[in-house]
Amino acid sequence: MKMKVPQNILLIKPYVPGKPIEELEREYGISGSVKLASNENPLGPSPKAVKAVEKALCRLNRYPDGSGHDLIMKLSERFRISPGKIVLGNGSDEIIGMLTNAFLVPGDEAIIPSPSFLMYEITVRAAGAKPVFVPLKSLSIDLEGMAEKISGKTRIIFLCNPNNPTGTVIPGKSFKRFIQKVPPNVIVIVDEAYIEFVRDKSCFKSMDYINSEHNVVTLRTFSKIYGLAGLRIGYGIMSEDISGILNRIRPPFNASIPAQAGAAAALDDKTFFEKTVRLVHNELDFMYRSLNNKGIKYFPTQSNFFLIDTAKNADDVFENMLKLGVIVRSMTSYGYPGYIRVSIGLHEENVRFIKALEKVIL
Ligand SMILES: *Cc1c(COP(=O)(O)O)cnc(C)c1O
Prior knowledge:
This protein is an alpha/beta fold. The chain folds into two domains: 17-38 and 271-361, Aspartate Aminotransferase, domain 1; 47-267, Type I PLP-dependent aspartate aminotransferase-like (Major domain) (Aspartate Aminotransferase, domain 2, 3-Layer(aba) Sandwich), CATH 3.40.640. Helices cover 38% and strands 16% of the residues. The protein has helices at residues 7-10, 21-28, 47-56, 69-79, 92-103, 118-126, 143-148, 172-179, 240-249, 257-267, 270-294, 314-323, 347-361; strands spanning 34-35, 86-89, 109-114, 130-135, 154-160, 187-191, 216-221, 234-237, 297-299, 305-309, 326-327, 329-330, 339-343. The model has no long low-confidence stretch (mean pLDDT 96). The structure holds pyridoxal-5'-phosphate (PLP).
């Protein structure tokens, strides 16, 4: 390579997405396989969103509303948060990147739970800053350990609630204690991509802190609960100070016309929202029962995915399940060499998963 690549960029390992179904079927010459690898909504996209997207297509010759007015007003009413505190993103991924780009310079530190969502490390490194990792404790985010890592260089702390890939949540009481130890110049980003699936009443809700003196940023997405991962739309809720900074670097048309229209319609699709939550809860309970019956060890979750301890090499389990047409995630690269992560699918997909897992590990 002739061009000079910054060292911080060379340190980034590319994000490895879940294997697409088409790729699996091409490689193994099989069909009818199921993907339970990316925590997607197995019911498809919200039907109301699909209708709105279709209707929006005839306006594609125009640029989108760069201020995202209609969608932001809708979110503002839904959460009783003033519109100036809401920023739209091309997926919540993009907002993570905007925050790290806007607030980190080389020499700064960002504290990240480990393992957690890989985009935190990637965006921190891309900004030239230093990721400071704090291992999970019993699969849960160790808030005390994270507070101990705060230094004069800390600018951002990442929390993922529920945490991907472990599905554990932060109790409200623990966060209350934690935030008292966070200096006022540090931003706490709380990624709530899966918050709609939480059943545990003690779970911390970051939006309670948006109007407080603390710099808490809530990140949410339409990708999971509304089944719109392919549309690319998410949002952040934060103080006007922070949103004002983000809007300086936000690409003006980052949320497309179909994305804004689809997301706004999805917010009204209560039927789909409830159907999704019901499916995930019922099917989680089904999965737990099936695994209990077989004596297979797993970790209960507050999300639409969970971890299973296969007591085998997870990369091998992953490969052998692929051959049976079931795509999961090996947790080897996350530091759990015996665990796989499985997303909740439709009932018949989950049945298929259980059968394949039994075949591979029992
Ligand atoms: C899926 C996911 C997201 C959502 O990303 P989008 O860019 O909105 O699709 C964010 N955070 C975590 C932890 C996720 O698992």
